[in-house]
Structures are given as C-alpha cells and as structure tokens.
Amino acid sequence: MPGVARAATTADAFNAVAEPRRREILDALAGGERSVNDLVRLLGLAQPQVSKHLRVLREVGAVDVRQAGRQRLYRLNGQALKPIHDWVKPYEQSWSERFDRLDVVLEELKQKEEGDGNDAE
Amino acid sequence: METMPSSGTATVELPTDEQILITREFDAPKELVFKAFTMPELVKRWWHANRGEMTVAEIYLQVGGKWRYVMVADGGVEVGFHGEYREIVPNERLVSIEVFEGYPDEEAVNTATFTEVDGRTTLTILVQHSSKEARDAHIDSGMEAGMQDALDLLEQGAVSLGR
Prior knowledge:
A: Arc Repressor Mutant, subunit A, three-stranded antiparallel beta sheet, elongated, B: alpha+beta, eight-stranded antiparallel beta sheet
C-alpha cells in the first residue's frame, strides 16, 4: 500500500501543494526570489490570500523567507518537495526506459531513410 | 552504426491535480517520431519499456478510430489499454482517449505534441485524468511496475538492446 506509507510520512508537503494557487506560487518562485507584492501582481490574487498560501507553504518548509530592507523575500526550498519527486520518480523511470527504446527504433528509421536515399541515386 | 543513441531523460510534471505532463527530446525529425508512435510494428518494439512483451498493438489512425495495446509483463500478468483517437494532425498532434482495462470506468485524455527544432523533436504527452484519485493511481502503477523485479528488467533490457 504505497499510498498509505506516503501519507504517513509526507502528508504535509503533499497537502500543501495540492492547492492549485499554491502550486502557482511555487512555479513563480522557481524563477527566483519574490516579494509578496511580486506574487500578488503575478498571480492576480489579493494580498491576504497570497500571504495565507505563503504561510501554509512555509509551515511545510516548501518556501523560505528572508528580510531584505523593508521587503520580505520568499524563495523555493526544493528539499521539502523531495517526497513528491520521489513519488513520481519510478513513473518517470518507466517512461525513460520506454523512450530509450524509442531512441533505438528512431535511429534505425533514420538509417533506413538514408539508405533509401542512396538507393534512389 | 555501433554507437548507442544518447539517451535523454524523460521529465514528468504534475501541472494540475488531474494532469501528468511527460516531456522528452529525440534526435530525429518529427515525421519519424510520429511514425514510431503510430505504426503498430514499431510501437511493439518500445512501448513495453522493458517490462514485458507487447502481444497486441492495434491502431486505426483516424478520428474515432480505436486503438488497443496489451502487454504481458514479465511475471505473466497481462495489462491492457484501449481507447480511440479524437484528433489527428499528422506529425504534429495526436489526441486520444485512454482506458486502463484494470480500471475500465476511468478515461484519460492524452494529448501528444511533436515539435521539431533543427532536426530534433520534443515530444510532450499531457495526460488529463478526470480526478486526482485516478491521476494518483496512474502514477502509483508506475511505482509498482518500477519496483517489480527491477534487476531482471534491467538485464532483459540490456539483452534486447544488444539484439
């Protein structure tokens, strides 16, 4: 029962990113540090909502914050999202193996096309 | 001739709760990637991902046309998928319904796009499920397949690649 094991150990991070707006915030932070005002502008949300989402993300460690002058700058903490990465990894691996085989098929098709071209001369 | 094509890494993202996005670049023009994606005898050679043998690959490549893939996994378990094509733009875009026969009530919509730049093709497959539960079950199935006899699969993969 992988689902149960996952929920017992990493429920927090999973719940935090289950909300679409919070994922948008994480996407925005993937490009670098942002202030709350930046995020308000980027997401088109009201400031209290953005602050609320940031609080949830901070609680699970998905974002860190630092004071820079009068601004508080938020940044992504990829380590906290590792459980999600680990969950998707085997699925990703099966596609990688599938595509590695597709590479072999494509290489043969390319050689066949080149061969056909030579034959036509 | 002897050199192995460099194998890239497939990336998997979860853009929304109901979606999976798979991306990979290939060193081949999009016509060939589309061909390998839609011709049964070619699909049979790669789709199994070294996890078994494909016994059925039926493709009726027309809008409303059906497709069905069956793989016998190395443990002997048979897994089937079927669906139909919703939209076909040759060498560009393929939209199809996919049903995993183990969960016949759940339909996913797969949108594959083929984008070529300088002779290299980026393939994206967007899988749209109808619920988060179905999406998560889909990813969990990858986990189980990945853990099953992993070493045997690696060995078998190496043998068939060397064939």
